Amino acid sequence: MSDHPISMTINGRRQTGTVEARMSLGDYLRIDAGYTGVHLGCEHGVCGACTVVVDGRAVRSCLMLAVQADGAEVTTVEGLADPEGTLHPVQQAMRDSHGLQCGFCTPGVVMTFAALTAEGCKPTEDELIAAMSGHICRCTGYQGIRKAAKILVDGGAA
User: Fold this and answer.
1) Of 98, 80, 1, 83, whose CA–CA distance to 37 is shortest?
2) How far apart are the C-alpha atoms of 6 and 16, rounded to whole Å?
3) What angle do the packed helices 143-154 and 106-117 form, to 10 degrees?
4) What count of Cα atoms within 13 Å lies in the side-chain half-sphere of residue 35?
């Protein structure tokens, strides 16, 4: 195996390490960096549970190699709330709408919505709901998540 030095910024903190060429970004984030909010489900890019934001774009961390994120800015669900504990608007919308149940898919959905609403972007409710097609949730029936999308667009409570 060949090891490769990598360095990236995760949730505003510089992280360096050495990884095997074949290590996924998801495994690196969970195992080496300790960000266990990154959930690895199918490991084929289908379920969306492992979604993180890399350089402003939502990506499946199970499909991206850690070496591909060398030099990147990575945000996981742990990096969304502010240091005082105030939830990110997407997290608050999910909470207000009861958009989570077991919580396994939640970080991926939250990260997708966060990427789509970042930096003043104003997606429509239909665009947010379409983005859900990349996520599998076995518990909620999606209605709470749909309500969260509506909250994000309307800016109000459920």
Assistant:
1) 80
2) 6
3) 20
4) 25
Question: Strand 3-10 to strand 73-75: parallel, antiparallel, or no bridges (unpaired)?
Answer: parallel
Q: Which are the contacts of 156, defined by CB distance < 8 A and separation ≥ 6?
A: none
Please provide the size of the chain in residues. 158
d(CA 113, CA 20): 31
CA distance 109 to 43: 16
The Cα 5–Cα 27 span in angstroms is 15
Residues of the chain above pLDDT 70, percent: 97
Cα 134 to Cα 7, 21, 131, 147, 154: the distances in Å are: 29, 27, 6, 17, 23
Per-residue pLDDT of 55-111, as tens digits, reads: 999 999 999 999 999 999 999 999 999 999 999 999 999 999 999 889 999 999 999
Residue 41 near residue 104 (C-beta atoms within 8 A): yes
